[in-house]
Amino acid sequence: MPSRDTPPATHATKLFVLDTNVLMHDPTSLFRFEEHDIYLPIFVLEELDNNKKGMTEVARNARQASRYIDSLVSDSSYNIDAGVPLQSLGNRDATGRLFLQTRFITNELPTNMAIGKADNAILGVVMFLHNQYPSRSVILVSKDINMRIKARALGLDAQDYFNDKVLEDTDLLYSGTLALPEDFWEKHGSNIQSRAQGEHTYYTIQGPLCRDMLLNQFVYQDSNNQAFYAVVTEQNGDIATLRTVTNYTHSKNTVWGITARNREQSFVLNLLMNPEIDFVTLLGQAGTGKTLLTLAAGLVQMLEHKLYSEIIMTRVTVPVGEDIGFLPGTEEEKMSPWMGALDDNLDVLNTPSDESGEWGRAATRDLIRSRIKIKSLNFMRGRTFLNKFLIIDEAQNLTPKQMKTLITRAGPGTKVVCMGNIAQIDTPYLTEGSSGLTYVVDRFKGWKHSGHVTLQRGERSRLADHAAEVL
């Protein structure tokens, strides 16, 4: 006999049983399963209640998930036993129903599985539903790998929460560059129009490859000892306009004494030095020059061009090893152990000259450091940055929601640069596909005021390059 708190198996839609960590990772997951139904065991509500206190992102998500559930079930016109329509809060894509466990469910688990543990209690509910409705697909959704392994060992269907993933395969992530084939000009040069404007030349071309181009995407061709580097400034159907880029690998175009060492670094400086670009994302492994190039461009535009009043640098404070505990001092002093990369790069940028001497070097360093502010991510809510050069380092450890919180701090005249390496994610429940950095790279591609470059070649040292390759 079917229980009064489980959905009937009269239709082909699936029944997803959500683990607590899914709701604490993404409270809106309740509305992400389209026409399928959702079932919440009572232990999930207990764990949400246990994790609701505090100011962490997890606590905020737990509280928000509880609010959504309360709003759904508080309408007296709906019978909880029959399921509450997920559309009732205005989410039109969620056409399924929400079911809550309204009575005690007993189901036999293997004797070696601890009784009373929340994970095992949830598995017991999934097994009960699986046995009660064998003709319906009952699936456990959990961010916990071991939870999914245990479910499959018991013969139950289990899967990760995929809706937070921007891409299933990060090899398909937008790189910001496009290599032109050798026959590109033969196929696209028949109706070519060119014009010179300042130091740049514009080419308006037409052809099938133009459909795949995006605004501010860099295109290049290296053949017959001739290099062509350009950026897409306009794109409409099979017509695109390309503008030649500034060659920052040449010594005459140095930025704060820094010369680009490869093609991608030159593309990066073109984005960083362009005042029309408000948002820049940089991906690359350690030693590709992300921080150095960004700081050099920021210093030139702040101190020489007067475009920005100061540089603000922040990063996610996730330790590689054991945490060193609480740190004394002000906000900036607490952040200083995490900002070793800043000091290392300032040493490179503040190279001594024969004319200035050691005193001049020290004075220049103090001037630069006084114009660079180090801020913690914990105090960003509610702030607005005006005419600032905002650098977000180690952005791969941010969730999409945290990334949105940071980027929306930008006021008029502010440039935001996000950089990181999605192969070095240290935050639990985040993967390469669900990282906030992956999220913004994919969502901002093609916007006329943003740009992205994936740096491939390390320039730190031959030892670092070889270690990154073989280790």
From TrEMBL:
Any GO molecular function: ATP binding
InterPro entries recorded: P-loop_NTPase, PhoH, PhoH2-like, PIN-like_dom_sf, PIN_dom
Organism for this UniProt entry: Candidatus Nitrotoga fabula
Keyword Nucleotide-binding: yes
Keyword terms, alphabetized: ATP-binding, Nucleotide-binding
Protein name per UniProt: Predicted ATPase related to phosphate starvation-inducible protein PhoH
Superkingdom in the source lineage: Bacteria
Positions of the PIN domain: 14-149
GO CC terms, sorted: cytosol
PANTHER family the record matches: PIN DOMAIN-CONTAINING PROTEIN, PROTEIN PHOH
CDD domains registered for this protein in UniProt: PIN_VapC_PhoHL-ATPase (cd09883)
Record family assignment: Belongs to the PhoH family.
SUPFAM superfamilies in the cross-refs: P-loop containing nucleoside triphosphate hydrolases, PIN domain-like
Gene3D superfamilies named among the record's database cross-references: 5'-nuclease (3.40.50.1010), P-loop containing nucleotide triphosphate hydrolases (3.40.50.300)
